[in-house]
């Protein structure tokens, strides 16, 4: 019998669903807007609609299970704890809400944790059982694979890698605390520094690459075209990223670190300064040589991770 796995990514903007076979090969996908301001019940019914789209024509017993990734905080039981981009989701259990209507085993996790699982199973982390994954975009999230398993912590809240304090007097993070890694190296942080430099009169081609407001994307485009200020801004973000990575290397001793998310599209302009900083900040040469590479899976990483969670928890051998 053909066996399928369903992966769902519940984002603040979009709900996306995917059906794959057990090797991760995509067979169907669907997406629609989350319209999060309409509240949990409306969003849950849209999740069910997207799942029904990707399971049309498939019999129930062919489906091994459904995995769903959601923005943290979400606990190991699949209860969502009021994430900023999903208003009204206080204590809503994705597992309970979806298991009844779908009649499937449901597995839920933090979207960035699932990104690590996806890269481990299908992407740039294949064969590496001690892996750190960071997604650098609007925020900075992360996931840790230790001994081949996702590190979840006691209740499932582990691996908020973007919320480590690098400077107690630093700029405010998206979470409200000062000086977290996310406040220095996320897309909005890079854009903030760019606007500040431009307001101070620095000459740069960044505005020419901006479609309206200056964003990290316009900084990256200008940097790739050789703009000195843009290169400096990415170097600075890479420096802070490297400080964070050195902390993670000391704490977790991964074999490989993968950087994904929109900002990672700046490539070596971000990664090389991060590697240099790591090399300068290690407490002993024994920690040297950790591979710091770009992640492989792109925007589908959360969906693939949700599918990978079913394969891991549902007992599908790798
Ligand atoms: Zn924070």
Describe the protein's architecture and organization.
- With 318 residues, the chain is α/β, with parallel strands linked by helices.
- It has helices spanning 40-55, 94-102, 111-122, 182-185, 187-199, 206-209, 216-224, 228-252, 268-281, 301-313; strands spanning 4-10, 14-20, 26-33, 63-70, 79-81, 90-93, 106-110, 131-136, 140-146, 149-150, 256-260, 291-294.
- The strands form three sheets. Strands 3-2-1-4-7 form a five-stranded mixed β-sheet, sandwiched between helices.
- Helix 8 (228-252) crosses helix 9.
- The longest helix has 25 residues, at 228-252.
- It is globular and about 60 Å long.
- The chain starts with a strand and ends in a 5-residue tail after the last helix.
- Bound molecules: zinc ion.
- Zinc ion is lined by residues 163, 173, 175, 177, 180, 182.
- Enumerate the spans where pLDDT stays under 50 for 5 or more consecutive residues: none
Compressed to H and E, one letter per element, the order equals: EEEHEEEHEHEEEHHHHHEHEH
- Count of helix runs: 10
Q: What spatial form do the alpha-carbon principal axes imply?
A: globular
Question: Termini distance?
Answer: 18 Å
The structural class is alpha/beta
Number of strands: 12
Helix content: 25-40%
Using only C-alpha atoms, the radius of gyration works out to: 20 Å
Hey, roughly how much beta strand do the residues contain?
Answer: 15-25%
Biggest β-sheet, characterized? 5 strands, mixed
What molecules are bound to this protein?
zinc ion
Strand arrangement, largest sheet?
Answer: 3-2-1-4-7
Write down the overall mean pLDDT: 96
């Amino acid at each position: 019998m053909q066996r399928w796995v369903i992966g769902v990514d519940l984002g603040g903007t979009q709900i996306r669903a995917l059906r794959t076979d057990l090797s991760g090969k995509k067979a169907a996908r669907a997406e629609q807007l989350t319209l999060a301001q309409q509240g949990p019940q409306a969003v849950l019914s849209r999740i069910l609609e997207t799942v029904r789209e990707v399971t049309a024509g498939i019999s129930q017993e062919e489906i091994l299970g459904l995995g769903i990734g959601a923005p943290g905080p979400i606990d190991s039981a699949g209860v969502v704890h009021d994430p900023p981009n999903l208003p009204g989701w206080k204590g809503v259990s994705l597992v309970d809400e979806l298991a009844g209507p779908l009649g499937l085993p449901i597995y839920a996790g933090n979207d960035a944790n699932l990104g690590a699982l996806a890269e481990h199973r299908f992407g740039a982390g294949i064969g590496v059982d001690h892996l750190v994954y960071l997604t650098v975009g609007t925020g900075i999230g992360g996931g840790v694979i230790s001994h081949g398993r996702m590190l979840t912590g006691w209740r499932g809240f582990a691996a908020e890698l973007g919320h480590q304090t690098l400077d107690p007097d630093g700029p405010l993070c998206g979470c409200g605390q000062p000086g977290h890694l996310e406040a220095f190296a996320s897309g909005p942080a890079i854009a903030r520094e760019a606007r500040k430099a431009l307001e101070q009169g620095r000459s740069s081609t960044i505005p020419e690459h901006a479609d309206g407001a200056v964003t990290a994307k316009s900084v990256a485009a200008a940097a790739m075209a050789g703009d000195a200020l843009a290169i400096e801004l990415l170097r600075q973000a890479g420096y802070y990223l490297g400080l964070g990575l050195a902390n993670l290397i000391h704490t977790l001793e991964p074999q490989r670190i993968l950087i994904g998310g929109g900002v990672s599209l700046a490539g070596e302009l971000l990664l090389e300064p991060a590697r240099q900083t790591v090399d300068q900040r290690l407490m002993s040469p024994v920690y040297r040589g950790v591979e710091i590479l770009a992640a492989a899976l792109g925007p589908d990483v959360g969906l693939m991770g949700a599918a990978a969670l079913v394969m891991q928890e549902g007992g599908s051998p790798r």
